[in-house]
Design a protein that fits this description.
Four Helix Bundle (Hemerythrin (Met), subunit A); elongated; 2 domains; mainly alpha; 1% strand; two-stranded antiparallel ribbon; Arc Repressor Mutant, subunit A; 2 strands; homodimer; 12 helices; DNA-binding
DNA sequence: ACCTAGAAACTTATCAGTTAAGTAGAGTGG
DNA sequence: CCACTCTACTTAACTGATAAGTTTCTAGGT
């Protein structure tokens, strides 16, 4: 890799090739594959709205022809887009643009969390950061239909008191409903993406010991208080109720995951 | 609706094939492609830690041989995993497991937000929900090194007062640093994933009008107050400071995105 | 005239074999 | 001991073919 005109330059390590990777902000990009052009074009068309969910895409053959590449490469590009959750491809039918859902997000969290207690604890903490604010927005923006749906879920929770698996599903539905009441699609997706990870935690949490019927009623009561504050349209109260809901479960959660990280520790 | 066994049944639309898709919880799964087995196996190996970041994967040929599939299919599976951000594949080298970063998250938000004001508003709102709590955790867990890094960024912000592009980068770095101080990897990834979308907003926000040097100093002052609360280890103060930081920018943001959604409106 | 069964056309899924290009390590010569 | 070349291995891409699922249209029967 000597570029100089004196032989000494050749022996210098790499002072002259500092850190191109960082300088160019491109650490690990492959030197441009042909399929990337397809991905990029379709991506921007979808993002800026020229292609809407449900719209059909050209077939593999057509894409291959228009981009001047072979069918397998065009196919690869489509499958990559499918892996991102952006399009839907099915045998026999042309691929179609797909409305974004929480699938990619859920997969991301699954990988990010892994199967470590550490990861689970962080995911639960992230949810704890979000939900009080979500409750506050829900209290501001809820509609009559929202309130009715929330009440129905509360009834369902009461009916499943003591039935751990059914309770977990009703509980998750309750929190998802509150997210929906904030009328922010991104928030709904966010909470739905966290759901699989949260479900793992809930299974552990609710399986830790035998709980009396009174314990269950106390838990239900905390949810009722959240619902009441939202129904009353009181953001501050809703936020506070959600906060104390999580605080109450805190001791048990620490039981499962261990203490909070020490400042200088593993994070 | 008649459900009898008379010949009229044949004319009924599809009462007898209710909603298999929903019943089976599988709305749109393709009838199992060969490559899916590869994806699933590698996925679980990575999630449960048998494969760690940096570990090499078998080559296309080896995968094809062990799974009894052809090379192009094995290749497709690897590229799909790469599209999920789970592995890194480069010409000439074997694929390797990759530590998860904010890339997939950023891409998700880009698609979810699209190019609508509505989406941008929702993303900004999501960030607003997160950051006060992040600041509170940062105040609890910050280390000396964290504080030093935060101070350095504050100095950088002061130096770039009035220089919009440089200010934006310093501002983003400040908030990212606070996220890092919460010592929760998921939170860091979360904020980094939102960054591209937030940057778009900031460009619009900071370009709206000519601001006096005093305006700039007021903005910087709000950041200083956040930093001071975190440095003092006061979670409540940090959260409050972050809240008022966002509240101050609220009017201008509403200027850009329009008013908050009406409860029954477009959400 | 209408409805239905079946063929035809089009789509994706998968295979095999081949060529090109990039990477890394072994070997060789200075 | 260092630097260079050569080789073996990897991914990138193409070609051409077969299988299997969807849709559409037509031909036939009622």
């Amino acid at each position: 890799m000597k570029i100089g005109m004196s032989d000494q330059l050749a022996t210098l390590p790499d002072t002259r090739t500092p850190d191109w990777a960082k300088l160019l902000g491109a650490a690990d990009i492959a030197p441009s594959r042909l399929g990337d052009a397809v991905i990029e074009r379709l991506t921007e068309a979808i993002i800026d709205g020229r292609l809407k969910p449900g719209d059909p895409l050209p077939s593999e053959g057509q894409i291959a022809a228009t981009f001047g590449i072979s069918k397998p490469i065009a196919r690869e590009a489509l499958r990559e887009l499918a892996a991102m959750g952006v399009i839907q491809v099915q045998q026999g039918k042309v691929s179609r643009v797909r409305a974004i859902d929480s699938g990619p997000l859920a997969r991301f969290y699954r990988f990010a969390v892994g199967s470590t207690k550490q990861g689970l604890r962080e995911a639960v903490e992230l949810r704890r950061m979000l939900e009080p604010h979500i409750a506050a927005f829900a209290a501001e923006r809820r509609t009559e239909a929202d309130i009715a749906a929330m009440r129905a879920i509360l009834v369902r929770m009461e009916e499943t008191l003591g039935d751990v698996p059914a309770w977990i599903e009703a509980d998750l539905a309750f929190h998802n409903q509150i997210a929906a009441m904030a009328h922010n699609r991104l928030v709904v997706l966010q909470l739905k993406g966290l759901e699989p990870v949260v479900r793992i935690m809930m299974v552990r949490f609710n399986a830790r010991e035998a709980r009396t019927m009174d314990d269950w009623r106390v838990t239900l009561g905390r949810h009722v208080r959240i619902a009441e504050a939202i129904e009353a349209g009181d953001p501050a109260a809703a936020e506070a109720a959600m906060r104390s809901h999580f605080a109450a479960a805190d001791a048990a959660i620490r039981d499962i995951f261990g203490p909070d990280p020490s400042p200088g520790g593993t994070g």
